[in-house]
Amino acid sequence: MLTTQAMTPNALAEQFDMTRQAVSKHIKILKECQVVEQQKDGREIYYHFKPNKMKEIDEWLAQFRQHWDDRFTQLDQVLINLKTKKDEK
After folding, report:
1. How far apart are the first and last CA of the chain?
2. 35 partner at 20 to 30 Å CA-CA among 8, 14, 53, 87?
3. Cβ burial, residue 6 (10 Å; 0-12/13-18/19+)
């Protein structure tokens, strides 16, 4: 939701079946990861999405992506072998 417009925690909470406090906990984590940024406007705090940070996170995750692709390929092969053995019986 923050990718299209800056929103307050209350506005975000209204869109989900959760309290404002629960939304604030999620926002806190996103702020720590620098995925969202806050901007004060009077008494309201608006949060907006930082797409460049997601690119950085994607690049960091890329180092693990090939490893997990390989692991899932191995798992697929194990499951195929088990099914083949079961079908042979």
Report:
1. 53
2. 14
3. middle
Residue 24 CA to residue 31 CA, distance in Å, equals 10
Q: Which helix (H) or strand (E) covers residue 18, if one does?
A: none
CATH class of 9-49: mainly alpha
Supply 71's token pair: 């692991």
Q: Is 48 helix (H, G, I), strand (E, B) or coil?
A: strand
**pTM (2 d.p.):** 0.63
C-alpha to C-alpha distances, 39 to 7, 13, 20, 28, 58, nearest whole angstrom? 10, 18, 18, 14, 25
CA distance 85 to 39: 61
pLDDT digits (tens, 9 = 90+) for 4-53: 899 999 999 999 988 889 999 999 999 999 999 999 999 999 999 998 88
* Domain definitions of the chain by residue range: 9-49, 52-89
Classify residue 5 by its DSSP letter: S
